[in-house]
Design goal:
Structural class: mainly alpha
Order of helices and strands: HHHHHHHHHHHHHHHHHHHHHHHHH
Helix content: over 70%
Distance between the termini: 52 Å
Largest sheet: none
Number of helices: 25
Number of strands: 0
């Protein structure tokens, strides 16, 4: 009976693929899709010693899900829903457990933050902020790069998608500015200013994504896993942990890239004139921008004070959405049509459920214990260094920060726990690295699709600079970052 169910599911999915994805099939994408599915089916009845049958099935489906996300044949939401269907139709987990992620406060926080972020894009407040920073800092190439960095930083707490920040606000302004300086992609003129600014803007986006819990969609998933393992962390604790070291890193990063990949132009005061002209064209702040500014400061203030006021950040985000709806800065169509928000809600809710189920069914502890036996006795400091380096550089094999975090975060954290690495130290390092390893390649993080895809930087330079920056990130956060967390008494 079970074989009939599995065969039917596989047949229906293949039939759908043949009908609606024929072009993908011609490109052998269907073959790539089939490999993880066949892997799961072949191993279904051969559990690892010491694992219960349902725990083994859950682990296999999890591996298949991560493999499909990495292969990127179908959207992440499609893969997540298919995974949920397989989990429940095979009775690996009950439906109530399968849907539990959608009742998680962290999932609703991410959704709410996405909806609030829509206000920045709709009102134009995000662009106004960026132009002001360009006006104040844009006299020199280095100053101009700091202007874009600061604009990204200001927007980061309330826009939980680094793709939305970079693609919706920073990149369009940056791209236009480069052309105004007669710096064109795929030409020698790219080195005038475009290549330098594109690289700084991208690399800075990786750092700003670490500085706030709500600055990147996958951050709360790491927090959820940490909480499952007994680590106390919330919006304010994340902010206290990452803001100070992050600010230092943001100050150093443009200098590193300026040395490695200097622009030919030395005077960019024209950028200030362009920004001033844009600000004049935008006119005085309009009503909706003022309300959006008020909501932004209200949210950040309440998030910072959430431990004192005992107001969950999710409730604060609901308050922000309610104000924007009540004042008609946003209407319900803006909410219902926000495809990115609802898409994230679906796959994120399912991934949160999977992370929780792996822990509850003892799979993470089982893998960590066996890995510890394989390595033998190792001082926790060495284990911390080795695990952190492994977690960072294995990202060369991933094309998504979220899929990487989903696949390895819980396991690496559990292994660190078995080696007696201080849990907060291990968990926070992994959380920070879950953003920073996006620096490595042109496919390592979604914002790279804008900045590398613009055509200002060749692939060799992108990888070379990315590797050098990775050394800076690892050294900085494992010394300055960990020392700061020690000073705060977090470990």
């Amino acid at each position: 009976m079970n074989f009939i169910i599995y065969a039917t599911v596989l047949f229906v999915f293949f039939l759908q693929s043949f009908i609606f994805q024929w072009e993908l099939f011609m490109k052998k994408s269907l073959f790539k899709f089939a490999m993880p599915v066949l892997f799961v089916l072949l191993l279904w009845n051969f559990p690892l010693p010491g694992l219960e049958e349902k725990a083994w099935h859950l682990f296999l489906i999890f591996l298949g899900t991560i493999a499909q996300i990495i292969l990127n044949i179908f959207p992440m939401g499609t893969v997540a829903l298919f995974s949920l269907m397989i989990l429940t139709i095979t009775k690996t987990i009950p439906l109530s457990e399968g849907l539990s992620g959608f009742s998680d406060k962290v999932v609703w926080l991410v959704l709410s933050a996405f909806l609030v972020a829509q206000g920045f894009l709709k009102t134009g407040l995000g662009q106004r902020i960026a132009y002001y920073f360009i006006y104040f800092f844009g006299k020199t190439p280095l100053g101009l790069s700091y202007g874009f960095v600061m604009a990204d930083l200001v927007l980061a707490p309330a826009i939980p998608s680094n793709t939305a920040r970079s693609g919706g606000v920073i990149y369009p302004i940056l791209s236009s500015l480069c052309l105004n300086f007669d710096s064109h992609p795929h030409s020698p003129s790219s080195r005038k200013i475009g290549s330098f600014l594109m690289k700084v803007a991208f690399q800075a986006n990786m750092i700003t994504s670490t500085m706030f819990l709500t600055a990147m969609a996958a951050n709360p998933l790491g927090v959820k896993i940490m909480q499952e393992m007994g680590i106390e962390i919330d919006w304010m604790k994340w902010f206290m942990s990452c803001f100070f070291p992050g600010m230092i890193a943001l100050m150093i990063l443009p200098l590193i890239i300026y040395i490695l990949y200097p622009p030919e132009l030395k005077d960019t005061s024209q950028a200030q004139e362009i920004a001033k002209k844009k600000i004049v064209e935008m006119g005085k702040m309009k009503r909706d921008e003022m309300i959006m500014s008020f909501v932004f400061f209200l949210l950040v203030t309440l998030w910072i004070l959430s431990p004192t006021l005992e107001i969950h950040p999710c409730v604060t985000a609901f308050l922000g959405i309610s104000v924007l709806l009540f004042t008609k800065v946003l209407d319900w169509k803006d909410i219902s049509n926000n495809a990115l928000a609802w898409d994230t809600f679906v796959w994120f809710g399912i991934l949160v459920m999977l992370a929780g189920s792996l822990s509850h069914h003892g799979i993470i502890d089982y893998l960590a214990m066996n890995f510890q036996e394989f390595l033998g006795d190792l001082p926790w400091v060495y284990a911390y260094i080795l695990l952190s380096l492994f977690y960072f550089y294995i990202h060369y094999l991933f094309a998504s920060c979220t899929s990487h975090l989903s696949a390895l975060f819980a396991g690496v954290l559990a292994i660190g726990k078995f080696f007696n690495v201080p849990l907060f130290l291990m968990g926070m390092t992994l959380s920070v690295f879950s953003n920073l390893f996006g620096c490595l390649t042109h496919y390592a993080a979604t914002p790279a699709s804008f900045f590398y895809g613009a055509g200002y930087i060749d692939i060799k330079s992108w990888w070379k600079i990315g590797f050098i920056v990775s050394i800076f990130h690892i050294t900085f956060w494992m010394t300055v970052g960990s020392s700061w967390w020690k000073f705060l008494g977090y470990w």
